[in-house]
Amino acid sequence: MLSGKIQNPSFSSSRRGFTLVEILIVVVILGILTAIIVPQFSNASHVARENVLKDDLRYLRTQIGVYKAQHEDIPPGYPDGNLHQTPTGEAFVQQLTVYTNTKGQISLTADPAYPFGPYLSQMPRNPLTGKSGVHVVTTGPMPEPSLEAFPDAGWIYHIETQQIIANSPGTDSQGVAYADY
Question: What is the pTM of this model?
Fold first, then answer.
């Protein structure tokens, strides 16, 4: 009489691992899924930057209008609010980010003589280029965005029309030019 368990010859007590073919099939399936999913995440982040750009432009345009309404119809950009001086990007940023008086003169502190602003906590960076500088156009038509012509500018501002656009050449994911935002 035999003692112990009877072993089934068709069933081995040791477990077999995966075959090389099974592992290769899993790796190929994971590669295909990665190839499908990763570009969608990359595109989502680019679309998010495009949406931030649209929101920044909308906010900048609103604040330019508010500034002009509070400063005797003089848009931001003229140093000390003087229409006889050449407008600059630096004056534009200062007038929107610090306190101003009715004439457009700036002050770092609020007091009754400087009741307006700041309209922005800081000049936003163009989310596509990372630049926050402003190139001011004083005459003629609005130029096309150009990173070569305006290397430090994230924004192009036409002081006569108060139009502001992103200094981002090209088109978005829908084929719309960034300059048309």
Answer: 0.78
